[in-house]
Amino acid sequence: MSGSLDWQRDGRTWPHREASRFIESAGLRWHVQVMGPDEEDAPVLLLLHGTGASCHSWRGLMPLLAENYRVIAPDLPGHAFTQAMRDSQMSLPGMADAVRALIETLEIEPAAMIGHSAGAAIALTAALDRFTDTPIIGLNPALAPFPWPAAQVFPAMARLLALNPLVPKLFSGISRLAGDTEGFIQRSTNSRIDREGARCYATLLGNSDHARSALAMMANWDLEPLERALPGIANPVLLIHARGDNAIPLDGVEDAARALPDATLEVLPGLGHLMHEERPEEIAGLIRGFLDRQGHSN
Length: 298
Known about the structure:
Layout: H1 7-10, E1 20-25, E2 28-35, E3 44-48, H2 61-65, E4 70-74, H3 92-106, E5 112-116, H4 118-126, E6 136-139, H5 150-163, H6 166-178, H7 181-189, H8 195-205, H9 208-219, H10 224-229, E7 237-242, H11 250-259, E8 263-268, H12 275-278, H13 280-293
Parallel strand pairs: 3-4, 3-5, 5-6, 6-7, 7-8
Antiparallel strand pairs: 1-2, 2-4
């Protein structure tokens, strides 16, 4: 499918469609889902998905957290139903700046930021000079640069692929023709997810604009500055990692937990990279316990 995803066509059966709204912020039209109490003093949780995903990845976790918090989950720039930025802006600082701008537009002060995979890196980067006291929770967090020479080869390859306009169309076409999204996800993430989630991923992977944005994000990604900054991030941090995650090595997460001044690491057995989609109740319990200890219960 070429062109941007269409909300009326592609989003008509999207999870929690009733919670969706579209917001203009810093020159972008964002798709955002909001759940939970409307009271002005209700604590807000901001959820940031990973590369190539969308807010649908929070479909099981959001309602659980919304019992106690006002939960806000955007599609990141260029992903799913949010407008894309220029390729050069799809860097870690660029994405963090866009998220900060969205927070200002929404006029919220998050009680915590929760990020999955690359979303955890965005949350930590956004906290560097703005949300210095905000608790941060990283789910299978992608915080360690690829070891050399992979760090040189993979971003360069992604950059070349993103620059070729035929590649995202070819990639999305192969994804559609394969017809086995559930199997593809299981092989690539070691996670078993439900059919609704697989259907959403099939829609995303089958769209060339979404694929291009994911490639552009990979091509511009550089985690070395964040890795150097970790010892100066004093925010309370909870890192939750699945031992079965074959996308993010555990040793890199352990290194990040040691580098952060106030970090706790939980390692869960029997789950993969999409653990929050596999067992949302378990992840919600860990999040609530951490926030209770930080004095952010509701």
